[in-house]
Amino acid sequence: MKQLTLILLSCLMASMSVAQLNSGNGVTRQVPVDGKKLTVFTQGLENRKPGQPVVIFENGMGVTLSNFKMLFSEVSKSAPVLAYDRTGMGSSEKDGKLPTLKYHADRLKRLLSAMNIPPPYLIIGHSMGAVYARGYAIYYPDDLAGLIFLDPGDFTETREAFNEPLRDIGRTLQQIDAFTANRLSKPKVTSAADTTPVREREVLGELRWTDWKEISGSKLPAIPIQFIIGGKFGVASEQRIKEFDHEAYFRARQVRAFQRYAKIAGESPYGKVFYSAGAGHFVHVDDPMLVISCIRIALEDYQRLRQGKK
After folding, report:
1. For residues 135 and 147, what is the distance between their CA atoms, to the nearest angstrom?
2. The whole model's pTM is what?
3. Please, which of 23, 136, 146, 205 could form a disulfide with 122 given CB 3.0 to 4.6 Å?
4. What is the pLDDT of residues 82-117, one digit of tens each?
5. In whole angstroms, what is the distance from residue 287 CA to residue 141 CA?
6. Domain 4-309 is classified in which CATH homologous superfamily?
7. In whole angstroms, how far apart are CA 301 and each of 9, 82, 142, 236, 248?
8. Any idea where the domains of the chain sit in the sequence?
């Protein structure tokens, strides 16, 4: 029987090359993939047991793997850890390609093959990294032990869903149309000279333009699925929307997103939704123990799932 647990938490606390740099008990290396070097951090791989998941961290847009560094040591006590910088970020070389979901999934697959790291993988993606994690599930679902979407770029938010919280706070149809016009403008085709965040922003724009067709047409595999949401409204006063109460809109949008996340989680075994009221968008920075605990729960759920198949 499929299970759904909604847990509301206010606030919890081979061919590689190049030099290896010690980082605590982990190692940072440069790994060539398709002729371009990617910066990769690993910890605990040497102790991996047969069939044990590797926890893979996907960064948000414009940030490097160091954004997750406060998690590595604790998580590696439960499973091997791998984090990396996508092309063009940090010291990873850029290749000028448009980082679509398919491109990214294939690139990550080749990276893991080059490092001789077979599945299964528990992927935890933050923000845009969550979109890429969801994309990996489209093209390589059998590789996955679980998915954790950490305050994700909302791949469940269709055009209609985007309008709902605006109606909830009393905006008229005309006001909604004016507000959403720029968000859904057709993105331009990127050039090789653009930075990685620019290229990823255009991929995100294209996905929104198509109403997330690439994702919505794919069902998630029957594995542990988690959503972790930060509930703190952290928009600086000078950046807030002036036409209406920005915080009220933020709260209404969260309620709608929570409902959609719960529906997705409910379709998967051991589906869960976690909420931290004291954490902002970077939940793993504001509430690292929550995220560490969620990873451990997902690993335990995967073992239970495997045992249930025997």
Report:
1. 11
2. 0.89
3. 146
4. 999 999 999 999 888 889 999 999 999 999 999 999
5. 29
6. Alpha/Beta hydrolase fold, catalytic domain (3.40.50.1820)
7. 19, 20, 17, 38, 36
8. 4-309
